[in-house]
Amino acid sequence: MQADERKCPHCAEIINREARVCKHCGRSSNESPTLLLAIIGVVLLIAAARSCGSNERPVREEATRVVTTTVSSNPSISSEECERRGVDYYKEIGAYPTLSDGRVAEDVAIERCGRTTTAFGPWN
Ligand SMILES: [Zn+2]
What we know:
Helix content is 52%, strand content 5%. The chain is mostly helical.
């Protein structure tokens, strides 16, 4: 490259230092690619800030926390254990073998334990 030459910022061809329009790609050499890159950078930063600012991440963290809590709070209660506790419970409140609404206490215990094994406890 000679003293009166420079690189076109758009196509990287050697052009005359005084040239205002590149003879290779025809684009104006007055456009600053640095400024263009800066604008693109700002736009990307704004986009990144917006996606971080959405509540997507907190929701995901909350879901993870709930699952972890549920699993760790009753790690070893089987549905059979739950049903046994349910029968004990209905015996304790005098609603065994038949509840006041006519349903069989053991069936209700099984039904409730089918939804969650902590339906009747855990008690210690
Ligand atoms: Zn060019």
